[in-house]
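Notes, p. 3: input format for complexes.
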Amino acid sequence: MAKPPLSMKPTGWFQVAWSDEVGVGDVHAMKYFDQELIAWRSESGQVTVMDAYCEHLGAHLGYGGTVHGEVLQCPFHGWQWNQQGRNVCIPYENRPNRGRRIKTYPVTERNASIYIWHDIDDREPFFDAPDVFASFGDGSSEADYYPQQRLFEPGREMHPQYVLENGVDFAHFKYVHGTPINPIFTRHDFDDPVSYVDFTITFEGDDGQRIEDINSGVEAINGGLGIAVTKSWGMIDNRTISAITPVDERTSDIRFMVYIGRPKAQVRNPERARVKAEEFGAEVIRQFRQDIHIWSHQRYSDPPALASSELEGFTAIRNWALKFYPDGKGGSAADLAARATH
Ligand code: FES
Ligand SMILES: [Fe+2]
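Output follows (342 residues plus FE2/S2 (inorganic) cluster):
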């Protein structure tokens, strides 16, 4: 294992919890980006993510803080803080402390996940977190799918960018996931902070097939480095979300979610269909675990020894990734072209 040379403080949307981990009235303690944080849900259902320490005398609000309507009360001296992190009540004074503010983070809640916008320069969000249904613009919704199946691997020694690079890495599918032939990419669009990668892939048949004859594939949308959503076609209907969030300078929490499509028509045995879907979801998760096994022991190679067929994809994704490193520690994508093996 090796500490990633890439910054562990990239900009973007990152998952910090699942929605059902933070019910109404709950205060949830967590650590991301080397900061102690809390997420709490008000009576009206609004989730706030903020720094964990009370600006009065520094109590950790995740240990005994309580939700009162739309505000959070500190367990130490009862000061109350609103969803903007402003102090709204000191119970033994006439006036709140208007000057002090607890840092809050922009929050998006979708696909049963809580995402925060992280930016060390405190810039406003400059793209949207992708939605595993709406972002594909095909009219699909959660109702068309069985409930989300999940994987959670906390504290792995890896960087979010490893996961995204997997998306241009056609050569790993055969070795890590056992595909009979190499997939081919049909779209690499890395112009904007939200990028698109489509590829033709099959998990079936033998190595005598030609990829040109294959009628199945995956479309992926990368919302920055933190969240990627995929949609499959021509195979069992599935959608996935991978969400990798840095915890500290060495480790990240890995979350992966899969949705399997419900049968389009009435089926004779709905329970059997559900069990089959669950098994298929478990198989998709197993494949993601195969990647985790590599990532969590990998040393990030920069510049890598690329084959010429890999040059374009890796150059595109590493250049794109630079957008998310305000501190400039994004590696040296420009060196790639010079060092590729021919
Ligand atoms: S430390 Fe929070 S109210 Fe005093
Ligand atoms: Fe993979």
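The chain has two domains: 12-118, 142-324.
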